[in-house]
Specification:
Elements (H helix, E strand, L loop, with lengths): L12 H8 L3 H9 L6 E3 L2 E3 L2 H10 L17
Antiparallel strand pairs: 1-2
Helix pairs in contact: 1-2
């Protein structure tokens, strides 16, 4: 795993996306759905290495129900 820049408090969604092999919009979706934790500094969100590890360990433990575009649960 990469180490974050010492001047920046963590990784950006773009950097995390490159590490995980997904699009930055996917990482932002995970953050908005609270699947991945992140913290804000000014108007930017950063993800720490610990938060990435937590995401990996929690991923797949619970059933995900997407309520984004549905009137009810979509499984």
């Amino acid at each position: 795993m990469q180490t974050p820049n010492p001047l920046v408090p963590g990784f950006t969604s773009k950097e995390v996306a490159a590490m995980l092999g997904v699009k930055p919009s996917t990482v932002r979706s995970w953050i908005s759905r609270r699947e991945m934790r992140a913290f804000k500094v000014d108007n930017r969100r950063y993800i720490s290495p610990q938060q990435i590890q937590e995401f990996h360990s929690n991923r797949g433990k619970t059933e995900y129900v997407d309520m984004t575009y549905a009137n009810g649960p979509v499984r």
